[in-house]
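From the shared-data thread, chain only:
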Amino acid sequence: MPVIAPVDCDAFVVKTAFLRNTAAFACGDGSVRLIGDGETVARPHKGGLLAAAVSPDGSRIVTGGDDGRVVGVSADGSLSEIASRPRKWIDMVAVAAQGAVAFASGRTAWVVQEGGREKEYTLPRAVGGIAFAPRGLRLAVARYDGVSLFWVNVDSPEQDLSWKGAHTGILFSPDGKYIVTTMQENALHGWRLADQQDMRMTGYPTKVKSMDWSAKGRYLATSGANAAVLWPFHGKSGPMGQQPLQLGVRSDTIVSVVACHPKEEVIAIGYQDGMVLAVRFEDNAEVLLRRPGEGPVSALAWDARGERLAFGTEAGEAGIISLGE
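Structure, as tokens:
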């Protein structure tokens, strides 16, 4: 049976992650709580913490705040300032495989390489989301009417992917062949990069705010409906002409966060009422991991082995769920 070890956050949980064996909870009050052999509270921001992303190697979590700072937080609680933009709210961050960090505020996005070299990208409209390609060589910036693609190591013109409307979040597929954005309307949009073929995914009752790829990149899991909606990407045309899986269907609430298991075709689903389920793709078998609580689930993250799941809610409830055999 799943066992929950509660974590006292007392603030909106922006992001959960595992820094190898240490669970990290990035909270809106500017703190990061680190639960390993003991508990450490790091304070990377004097004001509010607005965004966080974990490095692909699991060595640190990078946070952005309303104090204009971008800070790396290690498992032992040590802090390293990556950048500072006084009087700007840093509400988007991303970390590349080779260590580069991207962040954004307003109409500007920046990339800081590991050696400290910076590049700045100014867009005509506000940045909606940022993401690195799997190898970290390209940065994708979601914006109004599409996506801008930049090579981060060379100076070259941006590549434009156009689709009318406001694009508010963005992901590359694990193989780098696709880009998918969330939109201000209740839909996703995608592009196959080889030929810029458009893909439109609709039918959601609310906005999609959470996306995650399954272990082998076969499915893209999304929130925004009364079930986790998983679009198949294992065909030549991505999800076009295929029906998505719908897992963890509930009639009385909406999925707020999704997190795919790192090794198996299993998904953790967080709901607006605070419930957390684990569901298997193959047969829709469900395991209740947490009963409803005081607020919507705002963050979920598996450890590398897929044996523990860290969760957090908008009401500041949080914990580590250990899955029994």
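The longest strand covers residues 138-151.
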